[in-house]
Amino acid sequence: MREIIIPAREYTAFEMKSGQILRVISLEGRQCADVIAFNLDNLEERLHNARAVRLNSTYKPTVGHTLYSDDCNPMFKIVADTLNENFLGDSMCSEEMNFARYGVHGTRNCRDNLAMAVKPWGISKRQLPGAFAPFMSVSFAPSGETHITDNKARPGDYIDLQAQMNLLVAISNCPQNLNPVNGFNPTPIAYAVFDS
Prior knowledge:
With 196 residues, the protein is mainly beta. It has one domain. It has helices at 49-56, 95-102, 110-118, and strands at residues 4-6, 11-16, 20-26, 33-39, 42-46, 66-68, 74-81, 86-90, 131-134, 138-140, 146-148, 157-163, 167-173, 189-195. The strands form four sheets. The protein has a six-stranded antiparallel beta sheet. A four-stranded antiparallel beta sheet has the order 2-13-4-5, with helices on one face. Strands 8-9 form a two-stranded antiparallel sheet.
């Protein structure tokens, strides 16, 4: 199994066959990734986190949970998870979100990263689904408030996602440094695709 490094703030996209496993690794710890997916045989069918929340009854999926498409078809099954800290919140950092929240323009962000990653397949930025975020820590208060909290990933923590259909997958190594999602310091991650 060959690990491929995604440098801090960068991105990639690739195709997977049904049954293959995607491993995402937090190399130095405290780093999250944003993962999106499309049905490779019908790119209009996309990952849909709200479906996964309803069908799994959790915002924090781990081993045994399934990530679904907007047509409620299984896309990924989580088959290994060393941290058990992932988020199905659907949004991702973007130029617009960073300005609305922090008043900052010109930031590297997951939305632009993912748009650049899937552009060769003819997919536009407005066609991106919400992202599944391995290693992202979010707290939930009884009042309904949510807050991004300190990233708990340790060096070498990983999650294994088994493809349930042929997929186009894109990963943004989250560039966010304005909140604790990456410990305020984006670092490299790695990934590998292998047969089960």
